[in-house]
Description:
The protein has helices at residues 28-38, 68-71, 87-98, 111-114, 119-122, 149-155, 176-199, 209-216, 218-227, 261-270, 285-290, 292-303, 308-317, 328-337, 378-382; strands at residues 19-22, 42-47, 62-63, 66-67, 77-81, 102-105, 130-135, 203-208, 244-248, 253-257, 322-324, 343-344, 353-354. By secondary structure, it is α/β, with parallel strands linked by helices. 35% of the residues are buried.
Amino acid sequence: MPTDHPQELPAPGALSGIVVADFGRVLAGPYMTMLLADLGADVIKIERPDGGDDTRAWGPPFADGQATYFLGVNRNKRSVALDLADPDGLAAARSIVDRADVLVENFRPGTMEKLGLGFEEVRRTNPGLVYCSVTGFGADGGAALPGYDLLVQAMGGLMSVTGEPGGRGTKAGVALVDVITGLHAGLGVLAALRHRERTGEGQRVEVSLLGSLLSALTNQAAAHLGAGVVPRAMGNRHPSITPYEVFEARDRPLVLAVGNDRQFRALCERIGRAELAGDERFATNTARVAHRDALTAELSGALAARTADDWFEELTAAGVPCGPINDLAGAFALADRLGLDARLPGDAAGPGQVAHPVRFGATPPSYRSAPPRLGQHTDEILAGVTPVDDSNTGL
């Protein structure tokens, strides 16, 4: 029997109607613009015709003939291939910028000005434009330094507090500074859009990898600036909390992340060493930090008696934060068990896609299209064709 109720369509994304001219390359900029695209923005990725974004060639591994590095940060975008050294290509890029709400670029400082696409130039014809520049070390004194994540991790201090004591420093396992910078840039863009909504004024938003990293060092930076401490690498230990490190269970490593005295007492009871909680060397966190090595020795013997899974079940039930060290297969399996929907099926969004991490009640993320082939949308973009968002598959 036919129904009189119309089919309910997915809600448009929170940023539906926002056009982003994306000159970003590699990771920080593209990661940020992908998040904006997930939320409904029309992101026009402007790439050079001879190869496009560098990460298109950053493989193996590859999926469907494309580098998975590129695929991981470029869904929901449209690609236009333009030679900015050619007057026609530059004019086409300018036409996109003139109708955009947001411009994102991470060229060396001064490059966009030489092209005639600097902030002061383009704001004359698009005064409401939010112009986001991402640099490695800032647009002034650091303009000559290349903004590669590894370089910033090294020079910005992250490697000095990562790795084993006495080592030469270790980078994080992903380009973490790029990711953090992309998040800061996205926050800045959203704040600038809100300002424009109130005033009609665009503005320039600048974010550097170095500044983002120093901000993200949080407690380590505060220890240095507030107490004159120069933190050093401590392996998997925490400078201010213990036990907060890796122990060996009977079969594999186990992480304990004990954050307060109550959790410590529960830990001692469950491992059969209740007397440790009453020992003056371990009764408070400050005392435990002062006697870290002695405590680690006491706990190690008890934890080695059972498997990591046994301890995970036992200690979690007692409110003690702990868990095994998973590889990525184990991490995504955990997300699946917890119902986080962290992975997307390889359909419209393309292969190997991690879901947008924010959940919205009214304006869910949408996954409209796979990462684009180089120049895939050049003709439609130059013709001024606006995409139709009728395939929202919000989670």
